[in-house]
Amino acid sequence: MNSPFDNERPLSISPSLAATIGLEEATLLSVLTELAEYRPAQGQGWCFSHEDAQRRLPFWGPLDIERVSKNLAGKGLLHIGSAPFQQGGQLLFHFGQTPAAWANQIQHQAQHQSQRQPQTLAGHGIPIVEPQQLQQPRQAMARTDGASLIAPNWQPDNETLQRLTQLNVDQQFALQQVPEFVTYWRDSGQTQRSWGAKFHQQVIRKWRERETFSHSNNKDQMRPIDFNWRPSHEAMEMMTKHAAVDPQFVEDAIPEFILYWNEKGTKANTWNTKFIQHVRRQWARFKATVEHDSEPKLIADNWQPSADVWDILRLANIEQPFAQSLIPEFILYWKEAKQAQSAWNTKFLQHVKYHWAKQHQVRGQQLATGTLSTGTQPRKTRERSLAEDLTDTSW
Q1: Cα distance between residue 353 and residue 359, in whole Å
Q2: What integer pLDDT is reported at residue 388 of this predicted model?
Q3: What is the DSSP string of 8-45?
Q4: From CA 60, how far away is CA 68, in angstroms rounded?
């Protein structure tokens, strides 16, 4: 025979109880108390299932029940021993005391009703309320929208940090805002439904203020790129660790980047940003080219770089005539070596970048000494020292 709880019946909610803990909390607590009266406990608690929710609370979805039950748990009126309701489809709960203890407490509270605080829950047949819980400030007890105070050890979750990263906010900068954020909102005593969303808003605002301040301070610090320029440690980490670019590829890109912008005479205060964009464009095309080369083979007499190679070199600001002048020597070397390779395009790109970097070093020295030559042709093998030949990894 079904218990009265299994049938559709009116909900019984005390107005004064709803005024004390909130209408939604009073509704769910009334239903759970009714369930505990008619069903045997499972261990030390009860199970409120998805079917129970559909029968007794059809106007709520799983997310509503999860939210309100968390509110009750936060007020100390309920103990939850299951996964979130929306995830597990059931609510394992208990009121913290055995039924016998409840009865004793109800009887004791009834005898001393006149001596108790006017907002006691015992008069409503709820056998779980501790006296100190009834004396909480009304503001704290009236949270019915899922809002809560911020915890002393609150930290942003990974999803919040990822959203900030997608907006180009430095993660370290975001984490540096946590202590001030927590201190401010704990002092204010305000509640929020989502501290992550509040933190996201505050970090975005502070990041924009920082960028505005930085731009106003740096607008007069525009300068041309120096021949000894190198990307910062943070820029290198962003490319090699976060973007997974080969460190050697990054190193090879530095000379061509410096030479291009030095000859243009451009002034900037964001060389690291320009360099990161430069490398990422090259790396994307480079990876696509490598993926097309699959099977090892000897180099052909009439071998020519693919169109992708010229696109990559164009992105690297390396002149095409310069690269074309290296093809005959490149073919001759590998024909005599008789080695099969699966990526001739990649080999040639490395070779061109190596010689372009060598030319950059020579031109940098010439600019420093005032003996700049107008020639752009690479030095031939016989013009290089034995040490250079032995350390040449471009082949």
Answers
A1: 10
A2: 53
A3: -------HHHHHHH-HHHHHHHHHHHHHHHHS--BTTB
A4: 10
Burial 82-100 (b: 16+ CB within 10 A, else e): bebbeeeebbbbbbbeeee
Q: Which of 253, 255, 229, 259 has its CA nearest to residue 239?
A: 253
Task: Write phi, then psi, for 383 (nearest 5 degrees).
Answer: -90, -5
Q: What is the pLDDT of residue 303?
A: 85
The amino acid occupying position 202 is Q
Question: b/e for 170-189, b at 16 or more Cβ within 10 A?
Answer: eeeebeebeeebbeebeeee
d(CA 43, CA 330): 80
pLDDT at 136: 42
Residues forming beta bridges with residue 45, ordered by sequence position:
42
Hey, what amino acid is at 61?
G
- Please classify residue 353 by burial: count the beta carbons closer than 10 Å to its beta carbon, then call 0-12 exposed, 13-18 middle and 19+ buried: buried
| pLDDT (tens digit per residue) in 241-284 | 877 888 888 888 888 888 888 888 888 888 888 889 888 888 87
Q: Examine the pLDDT at 49 and tell me if it is beyond 80.
A: yes
CA nearest neighbour of 53 among 73, 37, 69, 75: 69
The answer to whether 177 and 203 have CB atoms below 8 angstroms apart is yes
- Distance (Å, whole) CA 229 – CA 278: 15
Give helix 178-188 / helix 195-218 axis angle, nearest 10°: 130
pLDDT grade, residue 121 (50/70/90)? very low
Digit-coded pLDDT (tens) for 54-102: 888 888 888 889 888 888 888 778 888 888 888 788 888 887 544 344 3
Task: Give the CA dihedral 169, 171, 175, 181, nearest 10 degrees.
Answer: 20
Examine the pLDDT at 199 and tell me if it is beyond 90. yes
For residue 341, which phi and psi values (nearest 5 degrees)?
-130, 150
Q: Which long-range contacts (CB under 8 A, 24 or more apart) does 228-232 make?
A: 229/254, 229/258, 229/271, 230/254, 231/271, 231/272, 231/275, 231/276, 232/272
In a 13 Å sphere around the CA of 303, the CA atoms on its Cβ side amount to: 23
